[in-house]
Amino acid sequence: MHMALHFIVPAIVTLLFFRSNWKMAYAIMMMTMIVDVDHLLATPIYDATRCSIGFHPLHRMLPIVVYIGMCFIPKTRLIGVGLVIHMALDSLDCQMTNQVWFV
Question: Which key words tag this protein in UniProt (predicted)?
């Protein structure tokens, strides 16, 4: 379900707020999933019980603040929104899996 939300929520956001150019907006938001490349630095790479927020370098608080800031700059807005959605969904996964919002 978690992975499905990474595709569904950006689709809903693009259709609601970026309707005139929804295909490009959705593509850009999908490209922000590259942020999960930092999972390759962990051992093991995948751990179903691990909370990625606060653990992986691109999932820490300072980068998240930068992602939020990107939402307010027109040229980086779609990237920022995609990354914030990604972090919010990962945080929700932490809550559902480990009963914490971040580590």
Answer: Membrane, Transmembrane, Transmembrane helix
